[in-house]
Amino acid sequence: MQAGETIFALSSGQPPAAIGIIRISGRNAIRSLELLTGNAIKPRFGSLRKITKTVSEEILDEALCFSFPGPKSATGEDLVEIHCHGGRAVIRAIEEELEKLDGLRRAEPGEFTRRAFANGRMDLAEAEGLSDLLFAETEWQRKAAIQSVSGSLSKQIEIWQSELLRISALVEAELDFSDEDDVAPSQTDMIGSASAALLNDISSVLDRPRAEKLKEGLRVVLGGPPNSGKSTLLNAIVNREAAIVSDIAGTTRDVIEVPVSLGGIPFLFIDTAGVRDEGAEEI
Question: What pTM did the predictor assign?
Answer without folding.
Answer: 0.65
